[in-house]
Description:
Quinone Oxidoreductase, Chain A, domain 1, alpha/beta, 2 domains, 8 helices
Amino acid sequence: MPMTAQFDSLGGPEQIKLVDRDISPPGAGEVQVRMRAAGLNRAELLYLAGQYLVEPPIPAAPLGAEGAGEIVAVGPEVRNHAVGERVCVLPMMDWAKYGTLAEVVNVPAAALEQIPDGVSFEDAAAFWMAYATAYGMIVQAGEMTANAAGKTALITGASSSVGTAAFQILRQLRARSIATTRTSLKVSALKQAGADHVIVSQEEDMVERLAEITKGKGVDLVCDSVIGEMIAPAADALAAEGTMVLMGFSIRPGSGVAVLSDTDKGNYNQGISPCLAPSGSPGPSQSNRGVFDTALGEG
């Protein structure tokens, strides 16, 4: 029997256990995938701890939101996929029912994308949560396009996988990226990951540095995943008609965080995590394909 990862109690990684489990044939609209790699993100850790937006079905809760492998069986009503295809499993499933941390899984066909030639299972498995979220912030909410030359984007929480993805997407769009970090310890790593500029928030005045980098114009896009003390200076540094996007689920009722809206400088968007077609859609969306094309340099 194939092994699968599950957890019976809320907590940390110590709650995860591997169990042998029979896998039923795929149902209507499902395919069966032999997993070759699975991605792990902060979202899974929050889910495991019971702090995510989705309630885990304790006990025997599945785990894993994205992965990659080969289709080994196709259920009824599936027309877009066939046995033998190399596919990504996207994080757009019902987490209470499906998980990717297993040797063999049944997943909705609507949550699959074919893996392009030359892309490894490992890269495909770790791609979607980070790159789709960054793409959603920059392209869909931030409305930066291939004509973004000369524009700048500020990325907070930049050492995350979403930050790294954002640098690469911005470079592909010919825009400049500005990363923030609390201490100078991560400056070298952030520049190596693709950041054009790095601001050390505990050592530099962020508004002054942003004015210097943008020659007084201000930043065109702020992508903020921290939603803390830097949100006010980031808003102050926005260019006229600039856009601020708040990413993730850090804003909770009663958190005491002031929500910005209808500012005189630009636009406000909240809640990009991740930007994918809704679960239950008939097949891979054009938006999803756009993420791959942009990241691979084909957009």
